């Protein structure tokens, strides 16, 4: 399933790239989606989204965000299970970004074009710990 997220970067520090065991750049960021008050003026709760960014996108995004920057991302929604530090099994949903960038709605952005991309930014089944057959990596169009 493809999804779109627009919200504010919620990290306290500028994110940096990590690398998988095979050297693939990856980073994850948390984005807060804030909603306008409802019809009665009551503030609705903030919805937090985990966005995972791979390869060139991760390298380009790393070091560019500061807390509160508005970002726009779209990609594939993936569900992942893990055991937390206290031994409790948890399941989370993450957006594995096909593209991500700073919104210019309330920001100005300086852009430096990478004229020779180092690798394909397409997310492949090898990027996941789960069974790649569970969900198609192809767009639904």
Q: How is this structure best summarized?
A:
The chain has 141 residues and is mostly beta strands.
The low-pLDDT segments are 130-141
Report the major sheet.
5 strands, mixed, barrel
Helix content: under 10%
CATH superfamily: Nucleic acid-binding proteins
The first-level CATH class is given as Mainly Beta
| Neighbour order of strands in the largest sheet | 1-3-4-6-5
Q: What amount of the residues lies in strands?
A: 35-45%
CATH architecture heading: Beta Barrel
According to DSSP, the number of beta strands is: 6
As for the number of domains, it is: 1
- Give the helices and strands as they follow along the chain: EEEEHEE
Q: Mean pLDDT, nearest integer? A: 79
Give the radius of gyration: 16 Å
Q: Give the distance, in angstroms, between the N- and C-terminal Cα atoms.
A: 11 Å
- The third-level CATH topology is OB fold (Dihydrolipoamide Acetyltransferase, E2P)
Total number of helices: 1
Q: Label the overall shape.
A: globular
The helix/strand class is mainly beta
Can you give a write-up of this model?
The chain has one helix at residues 55-61; strands at residues 2-9, 18-19, 25-33, 47-54, 70-83, 89-102. It has 141 residues and is mostly beta strands. The chain has one domain (2-134): Nucleic acid-binding proteins (OB fold (Dihydrolipoamide Acetyltransferase, E2P)). It has a five-stranded mixed β-barrel. A hairpin with a 5-residue loop joins strand 5 and strand 6. The radius of gyration is 16 Å and the shape is globular. It starts with a strand and ends in a 39-residue tail after the last strand.
């Amino acid at each position: 399933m493809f999804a779109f997220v627009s919200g504010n970067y919620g990290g306290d520090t500028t994110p940096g790239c990590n690398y998988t065991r095979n050297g693939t750049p990856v980073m994850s960021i948390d984005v807060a989606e804030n909603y306008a008050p409802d019809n009665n003026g009551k503030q609705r709760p903030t919805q937090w989204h985990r966005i995972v960014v791979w390869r060139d996108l991760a390298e380009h995004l790393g070091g560019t965000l500061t807390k509160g920057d508005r970002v726009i991302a779209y990609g594939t929604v993936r569900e992942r299970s893990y055991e937390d530090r206290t031994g409790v099994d948890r399941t989370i949903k993450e957006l594995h970004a096909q593209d991500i960038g700073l919104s210019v709605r309330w920001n100005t952005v300086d852009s430096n074009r990478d004229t020779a991309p180092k690798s394909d930014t397409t997310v492949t089944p090898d990027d996941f710990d789960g069974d790649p057959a569970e969900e198609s990596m192809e767009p639904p169009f």
